Structure formats: structure tokens, C-alpha cells
Amino acid sequence: MATAVELVEKLLARHNHHSRDHFQRRTALERHHPNRQLNRAYGSLYYASLDARYSPLAECPTAKEAREDLIGKRLRFIIQYVAAHT
Amino acid sequence: MHELSTPTSQPRPIPFHLEGAAPATTAEESSCPAQPAPWSGKPYPLDLVEERFWRQFRDEFLTAIHAWCVAHADRVAACYVPFSRDHLRVFVVRRSPTYDFSLSDALADLETELFEKDWPCEVVPIPASANSTLEHYFKPAESIQVYGNRGGTGREASRQAQSS
Q: Quick one: which of A1, A82, A83, B108 could link to A43 by a disulfide (CB 3.0–4.6 Å)?
């Protein structure tokens, strides 16, 4: 998630936006980059990070899911999107 | 002057009802006669602004969230909107005992939908096991329950979805 935050901040910096918290970052992303796949990817990583922090281990994504879905698909999409737009 | 009776039950979320549905009230709420608003005979602009805000809040924000919950009733057990001092938050209690990837996409879409309606908010999914310990996440007594039943197994929400 930290990588995704840094990437999104890099993306938003081009619009001279710097977020103080998740809500500011998320709304700025919606405003400047209304891309459904991007917002889904970033949203999923954020929700998973909440689970990792606050939920019982049994309710968190497994290591395999984190590796294959969260990192392999969603974070990968964010990396590609940011590379193409910065 | 009417004296309010001492509440006999614990503070609880305010249930949200779509227009036309009969609101459920506790015994003490039912025994309290409705009072006309003190400003009802003389509308001030601020009252009108407030009234319009609450109408839009109900019709645009709460109704959209309720409809989303009904559409995802198989994966959503309950939903709450606490009265927040900074920005709006929507707490969604999921049914799945494990992380639900299909729900996370739908939650992100809900955030987008509400942003597009000019109701930016933060949607926060909380695990199924948290439905009986909501106090860890927000103050249930200072929230609106948009959907589902607190502490229920989820069957009540299913029935609600089927009857909608």
C-alpha cells in the first residue's frame, strides 16, 4: 500500500495536489484521474491495508492472494498507469 | 412543557427508511408526542438551507447507499453512516469471513458513484466478525443505520433484500 500511496502522490503532484490523508488522496484521484480501473486498484489496496492492520488474520487476504491479486494485478496496474501519465 | 421519559434501552443507530416505509421506533420514542418545530411558523433562510441539506443528504446520499447495499445483499450484512466532524464515512459490514475481492471492486465503485453525485466520502469495509463490536470502529449511537441488522447473522438482511 505504501508503494501505491507514493505512486498516487507522484501522479497527483503533477496537478499540484499533495494529500494529508487517504480521503484527500482518494477524492483528488477521482477528480484528476476518473479512471475506474485505477480507482478500483487503489481502493482494493487501501481496503486490504485496513484489514491487515485491524482485522483478525483469518479475515485478511492470504499471502498468495496478496502476491497474485493485490501485487500482481492491482499494484501492477497502478505502476503502469503512473508510468504512462507522469 | 413535555418531559421526556427516561430511556429504557441503550442508545442505538438511527434506522434509515425509504420514503413510505413505516419507521421502527422504540417504546420511549413512540410515547414522545411529536412537537412542531419552533421555527415552523416563521421560516428563516438558514432553516431552509438546513432542510434542503437534509433532504439532499437523504435523497441523494443515503438512498444511493441503501440501493447499493440491497444490490449487494449477498455480500453485505449491514451499513452505517456515523455523524462525522471532518468528512463522511460509510462503514460496510461484509458477510464473508475472508477477504472479499469482488466486494472491494464494488466498494470502490460506490465511492466513485458518490463522488460523482457530489457526495465525496470514505467507504470503510469492516469484517463480518466486527458486527457485534462496532464500537471499535465508530460510535453506533451517533450513526445512521442505512442497511441490515446490528449483531445479526445476516439472515435478516437477506430477508430485507428479498422483500425489497
A: B108
Q: Tell me the shortest Cα–Cα distance from B38 to chain A, in angstroms.
A: 37
Scanning every residue of chain A, which has its alpha carbon at the shortest distance from the alpha carbon of B133?
A55
Q: State the Cα–Cα distance between residues B133 and B150, nearest whole angstrom.
A: 9
ipTM of the complex: 0.89
Give the nearest chain A residue to B104 (CA atoms).
A44
Q: Is the pTM of this model over 0.95?
A: no
Measure Cα distances from B96 to B86, B103, B130 in Å: 30, 9, 12
| Residues whose CB is less than 8 angstroms from the CB of residue B104 and which lie 6 or more positions away in sequence, other chains included | A40, A43, A44, A47, A48, B125
Joined grid coordinates for residue A70 = 493485490
Residues of A in contact with B108 (CB under 8 A): 39-40, 42-44
Which chain A residues touch B101 with a CB distance below 8 Å? Answer: 44, 61, 65, 69
